[in-house]
Specification:
4 strands, two-stranded antiparallel ribbon, two-stranded parallel ribbon, mainly alpha, 8 helices
């Protein structure tokens, strides 16, 4: 969902304003965090049987990054993005992997992912249990009608809203105020 927001944001700016009116400091910060997350995921995939603490470490790093980002960029888009990042990081810190609702996977047409989770073969997700997982884990299905069907969390939605604000809404408001 994040990639779609970034692509749509850049396309909106490119086609409607014929220029990218991005503040590159924002983009560099977000892309830096996303790059670090990708590196962490790669390291975990190298050692999928590693200790649980290795999985949980990424959650604590994500929480730290979200707090750092919020402290440095106290603007609405960054606040939304940081809260979403914090919530997802909290799930990883507590459970090592992102909990996902099996029924939401079926609704999204992701039965193959469900099979992997049942066999405990996913390095990024686990089956959802009770408690906080039910609210902050991946439980919102984006069905097959959506081109990239998947199950997302409230944290994913907040991160996407924050990016949408930074990449689409904020430049529109800025452009309108210059007229």
């Amino acid at each position: 969902m994040l990639i779609e927001v970034i692509v749509i944001g850049l396309l909106v700016q490119a086609f409607f304003w014929k220029k990218a009116s991005l503040n590159l400091d924002y983009l560099k910060t977000i892309l830096g965090i996303l790059a670090l997350l990708l590196v962490l995921r790669f390291l975990i995939r190298l050692n999928p049987q590693g200790p649980q603490v290795l999985y949980q470490l990424q959650g604590f790093l994500i929480i730290g990054l979200s707090l750092l980002l919020l402290r440095q960029k106290p603007r609405l888009g960054f606040i939304l993005f940081s809260i979403g990042l914090f919530l997802n990081g909290l799930m990883l810190a507590l459970y090592g992997r992102m909990p996902v609702d099996p029924s939401a996977l079926v609704q999204a047409g992701q039965e193959s992912v469900l099979k992997l989770l049942i066999q405990n073969q996913s390095t990024s997700h686990c089956l959802m249990g009770r408690g906080l997982q039910e609210y902050l884990g991946d439980w919102i299905p984006l069905p097959k009608a959506y081109p990239l069907a998947r199950v997302i969390s409230p944290g994913d939605i907040l991160m996407s809203l924050g990016l949408a604000y930074l990449l689409i809404i904020q430049p529109i408001v800025k452009e309108m105020s210059n007229d």
